[in-house]
Amino acid sequence: QVQLVESGGGLVQAGGSLRLSCTTSGRTFNSYVMGWFRQAPGKERDFVAGISPSGGKTYYADSVKGRFIISRDNAKNTMYLQMNSLKPEDTAVYSCAPLTFYGSRRADYWGQGTQVTVSS
Fold it and tell me: Whole-angstrom Cα distance, residue 2 to residue 81?
């Protein structure tokens, strides 16, 4: 398994921005489709965004489309999630994961996650 470490979470006011990072181990990062997920208290983990191995193609959950941007830097084995126009309902633990195929919205394992809290 790829080791995954998320960072960049924090407390932000509604309308603000945060950038999350997902750093991975191993030499095969650039062969993986990667994704971001989030889990709010008492709710199931939901898909947020996915990105192709090269970074040239992306896809999003409807709830974040137009506000969040997923990207990656394969030279740094790192994926990012730029979150803009944040809303209180974006509050959750955000985790990254490798995906089985481009377009998938499911993962088999995730990192430990980073907490994002959006205050109203």
Answer: 19
